[in-house]
Amino acid sequence: MTVLWGVSFDATAMSGVVVEFIKIARTFADRGYRVHLDLGYDIKADKGRFFQPYREERVPDWIALDRVDGVAEISGYDEEFVAGTLEAVRRDRVPDTGGVTARLADAIVRTWEDRGVTLVMVENGTLPENVAYTKALYRAIAVYGARHDLGRYVLWRDHDLMWQSEPDKYGSFPYPATPPMVDSPHIHYFALHEEAKRRTLEWMPHLRNLDVLPNTFLPPSRPGRPDFRSHHGIAPHERIIARFTRIIPQKRVDRDLHLAALLPGTCLFVAGDTEENPDETRRLRLLADELRVRVVFGGVLEPCESTGDGFSVRDLLAHADVVSFLTSYDYESYGNPIGEAIAAGVPYIASRYALYDTVYAGFEAPLLDISEHDLPTPEFARQVSELMTNAERRAEVVEHNRKLGTHNREAATALVEDLFPPAMGENVRLSVVLPVYNEAANIHDVLRSLLDQDDIGPEAYEIVLVDNNSTDDTVAIARRFAESTEVALHVISEREQGVAPARRTGMEFAVRRSRERKNPGERFYLVSADADCRVDRRWLVELFAAMEEDKAAIGVCDYYYNADHFVGRPRLWDAIQRTLRCRAVTFSLFGGFPDGKGFAVEREAYESVGGIEIFYQLRDGRFVNHLSDDWDFGIKVRGSGHDITYAPRSRVEINPRRVNHAIDEVITGRAYGTDGIIVMRDIRPEAPERAVDLTEEEALQAWEFSIKDFTPKNVVLPILLTPSFLDSDAVVAFLGEDLADRLGRRIAEVKAEMSVVDFVPIHSYKTPSYRLYLEFRDEIFACLRAAVGEDVGYPPPLPECFDDVPPERFAEFVKYYCEDRESGEAHNYFGNGGVF
């Protein structure tokens, strides 16, 4: 049993910090972790719970409330000691905690040993409320992590760093008395947003493992109790402004009272501990009487995730018309009430506090500009009233905020799963990596095809879906699949836009986890799939069988198009079929190269060449990642001496939208780019897809672009990378002995001339491939006609610049043409990518 130990420096059972812990911990509980939570009663002195036993604290039943064993017996450690160290910090003096720190660290380690802890979550540990405990925690993490070789097993998240909440309380920057954050091999730090990350690095520039992990707002898991209104004496017709917060001056609940006074028929419901600051509660009650405002002080509600019998925050949200967060300017960071409103589908209002735009940029809500108006204005009240009474506007705002909130939640969950990945099943032999970007329309069918695989058990493979910043429901659909299938389906994210970074992230995720299995020496395969292409039912088992039988480093799939999608388009269909027939011949001879639509690579070979490399090009003055990472990866593998095998019965059906997109570009003479720039584009059609056939001229142009791209890559390039192919009887039979001999000698000459040892880097293969194609094009096409059929025809016409070149100098000028880096003419001629 794996065990998660959580510790909160908040020292209270009902707080946003604890709620956020529960949400992240749920991810690990779902993986089988046993979750223990120390609420921090023995850490923070000002909450009055030091050494107090747990009594009626309510947390979900899958969490065991726990604490460090024997902490009350540590000599010198008590509330007075902690309060004294905090006072020293406030005066920028470093308190002496040496003996206590050592004893605390020993107690923490002993407790973790006893519980069998394997993962630790620290919430708000950087706040210098208890310098001794923070230092002890760092010491315990180092000792325990080294003893058990746990790697980066600690998730350390700060909700309220010194500059975000009550800055006057903790001393001044650069916080000389606060324990510095340790750049530990065992800790991954998280800030709530980019501004917090920036300020953290301003204070601790040496940190190397710091990410942004925003709060994760979860939708309600149960309906609100219908008796909430009647229990609190709120009439059915009354509108409710909900305020759930601590009742302290910094929260500015008085603003809500003034707002309610401008909204007749409205009840203000304030959820919070009225005894935390009795003077503030008394002041608010008097103000409510003065303004003649209907206000209900509802007391402390249970956390949103509570499963207890009492009323919860979610019960309030189910009845609220709007959630308010009119807080002080310099007090808040994230503002949990806003997030809970978004998750529950309730509109919210807020003050524009210092970090509001950092956290909630893009969300829609009436905002009170407190730099100009300390109290709500009639115009602000009008906006709030419209949000509560205009059903159409309300629904529009709720849906807009829901989509943004869902994306943020999924990104946060994916980040945690990526950094703390779930264990891989002992019998998993293949990890299918699926990069996705806004594929809600296709992802159901694609996942269904990946899951409905014949003759391979669900325990033998997994799916890693890599979300590449989707803004639609792609991830939500995938997560629903994950809940209902026997095949493990993991959802992670990659922030850098592009299929290449996403594919690499997914494969690295699988590699790391595969190393931890009981039989790490067993051949393990990383498999690439595309998010808009469906695979056949035997796709995976045939690919696996070919890899196992041939012991190859890479396995290449076959692909095809569904003829039903091209009914009434015979010229286009003919061009597609000719290309695929050529592919079948050359792949049977040379094995082909990886195509993102479907290939597998053995883990050891993947790592031996450094994995997928991302190449960058300049487009419009900006660096963009190069599209053909799959081909470049294949070249690295083949150029490093590894074998590639072709699995013709492992088949992928190509989405016809790819052809429609490429055809339109081919007809304009651009194909996938110009001047050598080949980058990812969104190929989903904005207008209705082209459904008419090509003209004869367009069909010819499409074929020529396709075959010009195909031939250098699939005939010339394999021989460049593996000259021993020319010793194969099948290849000699295809080329003929004379052509095979001359091609081999010419390759050696070009290699020597270019001083290239191996044709491995991305631009080392294009020039010689293009040169050899142009020099041998007539003879290669003759070979293709003989092997594939006469309808392959003859090579497309040469560029006009060769019209005046004397025949005896043709090879010389081919070299100049293919090495023309200024105009990119050769790249444009070859189309920067095929059509089919």
UniProtKB/TrEMBL annotation:
Presence of keyword Metal-binding: no
Keyword Transferase carried by entry: yes
InterPro entries (alphabetical): Glyco_trans_2-like (IPR001173), Glycosyltransf_2 (IPR050834), Nucleotide-diphossugar_trans (IPR029044)
Domain of life where this protein originates: Bacteria
Coiled coil: none
GO molecular function: transferase activity
Domain Glycosyltransferase 2-like: 431-590
Protein name: Glycosyltransferase involved in cell wall bisynthesis
Lineage: Bacteria, Bacillati, Actinomycetota, Actinomycetes, Pseudonocardiales
